[in-house]
Amino acid sequence: MPTGSCLCQAVKYDDHSLATQKHLKLTQYIQAVCHCLTCRKLSSGSSANLLIPENHFRITSGSPKTYSMTHESGMNLTTRFCENCGSLLYKTGDREGFEGAVIVLAGTLDNTEDFEKAKPEAEFFVKHRVGWWPGLGFATQLKEFE
């Protein structure tokens, strides 16, 4: 079962829908790298993300703090982070395609093998990708979210 946590381990999460499966099947999620200006500010660069159904995701320890903002696309975006260490764990948005989903930062996965399996299928907001990032040739390139 995939699990994740913040840097100090105060906030932990899992995907309880996979609790009975022997092997992680990350292919059921949308995996993407986002180059939007919001992700750049939040993570000091592009952000590797897993988009999973909200009803599969649960906090198993701790209570993350929230911060809400208007994303450059116009959607309301709420981030969840650890109050103690400041690690950004996940985001939710009200834009079509994001409703009912949790955007988990792939770097918060506890198992490095799970992170390795989170190969991005797409790159969002490539219009903001920095020139020294060559892009992922195997991933769909999208100007924004569409």
Automatic annotation (TrEMBL):
<dbReference type="InterPro" id="IPR011057">
    <property type="entry name" value="Mss4-like_sf"/>
</dbReference>
<keyword id="KW-0456">Lyase</keyword>
<comment type="similarity">
    <text>Belongs to the Gfa family.</text>
</comment>
<dbReference type="Pfam" id="PF04828">
    <property type="entry name" value="GFA"/>
</dbReference>
<feature type="domain" description="CENP-V/GFA">
    <location>
        <begin position="2"/>
        <end position="116"/>
    </location>
</feature>
<keyword id="KW-0862">Zinc</keyword>
<dbReference type="GO" id="GO:0046872">
    <property type="term" value="F:metal ion binding"/>
</dbReference>
<dbReference type="GO" id="GO:0016846">
    <property type="term" value="F:carbon-sulfur lyase activity"/>
</dbReference>
<protein>
    <submittedName>
        <fullName>Glutathione-dependent formaldehyde-activating GFA</fullName>
    </submittedName>
</protein>
<keyword id="KW-0479">Metal-binding</keyword>
<dbReference type="InterPro" id="IPR006913">
    <property type="entry name" value="CENP-V/GFA"/>
</dbReference>
